[in-house]
Amino acid sequence: MKETKNRCLGALIGLAIGNALGAPFEYIDMEKLPEINDFHSGGIYNLNAGEWTDDVSMALCLAESLIEDGFDFDSQMKKYLKWIDEGLYSCKKTAFGIDNQTMDALIQYEKDASLPKIIDKDSHKPLARLAPIPMYFKNSFNDAVFYSGQSAYTTHNNIYSIHSCKFIGGFIQQAINGATKRVLLEEVHRHMDLIYDVKLKIVDVTYKDINDLINDGKAINSLEIALWTIHNTNSFKDAVLTAVRFGGDTDTLGAIVGQMSGALYGLENIPKVWLLKLAKKDMILELAEKLCNK
Ligand SMILES: [Mg+2]
User: What is the Å distance from ligand 1's center to 250 Cα?
Assistant: First the structure.
């Protein structure tokens, strides 16, 4: 397989696998987690092993929207609404796991087609679905960065969420194009116009101890956890397992780290047993193929 294609496919498959590894342990604190080395069943949504949650559903809606319409807010909102109303790209028959902010934004859009106003709440939710953007814009760093930031506006119009999305979009685009881990962690941010608070999290991460990290679901803190995790591991497998072992919003942390490390290490370095056991893997691979062939 061509290396660019390998890394491109790895981004979306990595997102889904990272999410599925964390899905049964959502909202369990780090100290109370069992040992996680593989897919498990259970959790608040009573999932089978290999099944995934809302972050993946939204990523797949975003992927289909990009394939059909390019980057288009209206198209994205309609796909997300179809997920909520009809279970489009849900792992089960209906949608589940929708966060309040996303629900409010979609209800509002259905009423008057307006996107959400600026909010103070900094959330990592939009970070966990964005891999399709840099996959689609894999030939343009600037477009990948810009539209990854834009993708947050549909549900989470918050400056920290937006700038964290911009960074992750640029990271994945560069990873797809073969950037090394050192370049991704130390140099990519220099070519982006990011707010100070987000830059600081990126620049400092290599000096941080695990006890310095804050696992509270905020975009800038989850971005820091993701970068720390990638810095301190050397394979896709170790990266995603380390991410979900933080506890808390485990499926979302798994998705964020899964897409970044999936692009860095490539599909061929994602354990085959996980790909085989991933729920609806053919459907996800088909969308990934379409995005990577664009
Ligand atoms: Mg979650």
Answer: 6
pLDDT in tens, 166-191: 999 999 999 999 999 999 999 999 99
* Cα-trace Rg, the chain: 17
Dihedral sign from CA coordinates of 102, 135, 141, 139: negative
The rounded distance, in Å, linking the Cα atoms of 235 and 176 is: 16
Spacing, Cα 6 to ligand 1 middle (Å): 27
Q: What is the pLDDT of residues 44-59, one digit of tens each?
A: 999 999 999 999 999 9
Residues around the ion ligand 1 (C-beta < 5 A):
249, 251-252
Q: Is beta strand 247-248 parallel, antiparallel or unpaired with respect to 28-29? A: antiparallel
Lookup: tokens for 230: 């990638």
Domains and CATH numbers, the chain: 3-52+116-293 (1.10.4080.10)
